[in-house]
Amino acid sequence: MRALILAAGRGSRLQQSEPKPLTPLLGLTLIERIIFSLKQKGIAEAVVVTGYRSSEIIEKLKERETGIKLTFIENPEWEKGNGVSALRAKPILENEDFLLLMGDHLFDPDILEPVSKKNDNDKTAVLIDRDLNSVFDLEDATKIQIKDGVPVDIGKNLENYDAVDCGIFYCTPEIFTALGRTVSEGKYQLTDAIQYLIYKDRLDIRDVTGRFWIDIDTEKSLKYAKQRLLDSLSKTTDGAISRLLNRRISKHITRQLVETDITPNMVSIIAFLLIVLSSVFFALGEWVYLLAGGILVQFSSILDGCDGEIARLRFIGSGYGAFLDSILDRYADSLIIFGLAYGYWIHNEGLLVWALGFFALIGVFVFSYTNARYEAIFESSESRGIPLRRDMRLFIVAIGAIINQILITFLVLSVLTNFEVIRRTVTTRH
């Protein structure tokens, strides 16, 4: 299936020097975010209708490797309305079903799942949101009145309405018949064609209430969209320390880094180098160095979340990046424990610290190794057991170093990690 993106409007309410589709939004332009969202959901080709400052948009997208085949159509009559822009795509899309999206609507890529499936009744369908309280600018939204599950009216000025349209449509070729009819009557908005389909009982609705979407028309809506994107970076698999501390800081760091040329892999390496430095401090053994090392470990833990955040914001996550991050984490864990053990030993001697350090290292390694296998078996996160993800383990190390309790730190890590490994082993058997 192909997609049609309407990106011809001016966007005069946005105080930006760029054309509206090229509005910067956390490392990508608005239209790039739409295109990458389509790619993420398996759409391999898109038609982009441009108008205002068309050449700038086309040049920008041609320079960018999007992974989607793009076909451009220039609409010299873009000022008339977006219905005219949509009609321009008729020669290319008139014999197939396609997705229709607005070039100024940001959305959760998962919102495309219910709209990308063909209707049994062969009707055009519109995505709707019934949660009116969640709509950012309800006054400016396009409202839809629904009766017995069927749309009966659409428009921005409806007094009685039940939902708003999200600016995303599943279109059959019939949409071009409706557009041709309404444009010939001097009605140039896409909403006019949708109203025609409603009149002919040829419009279906698909409810995506609860999914994130926003029409970016003003500076306020742009600011809100940025915050929602940052808020979405949290993951359901985040550990307690990530939820309560790390993410609250890492999002602010990511907000700055994502606008630069720094890649996720660079961030992973920087976080690893901080661990290397902290292990050197730990190996010196004196409390002031333990304090510095503990602080560095916790900051590295915070920074370790930024690589994934940048990857998700830019749609550049990769298997190699995840592999590199995992390898560096294991080396980092080894350096931390060795540094702490050596620093304690040169000042206190004795073999106890090496024994506890050994069991802590074994526990951490086997705990990490069993994560993926255990979750694959139970199709759930490790939250059923001891919540000891890496963010928690590094936090324990940081606190232990800061208060100069190395033996206790090793003992806690040894007991918790190895106990959880044993628990998992028993659980999987039964």
Automatic annotation (TrEMBL):
One cellular-component annotation, GO: membrane
Ranges where the MobA-like NTP transferase domain occurs: 3-126
Domain of life from the UniProt record: Archaea
Record's keyword terms, sorted: Membrane, Nucleotidyltransferase, Transferase, Transmembrane, Transmembrane helix
Catalytic activity: 1D-myo-inositol 3-phosphate + CTP + H(+) = CDP-1L-myo-inositol + diphosphate; CDP-1L-myo-inositol + 1D-myo-inositol 3-phosphate = bis(1L-myo-inositol) 3,1'-phosphate 1-phosphate + CMP + H(+)
BP-aspect Gene Ontology terms: phospholipid biosynthetic process
Family: In the C-terminal section; belongs to the CDP-alcohol phosphatidyltransferase class-I family.
PANTHER family in the record: N-ACETYLMURAMATE ALPHA-1-PHOSPHATE URIDYLYLTRANSFERASE, NUCLEOTIDYL TRANSFERASE
Identification of the protein by name: Bifunctional IPC transferase and DIPP synthase
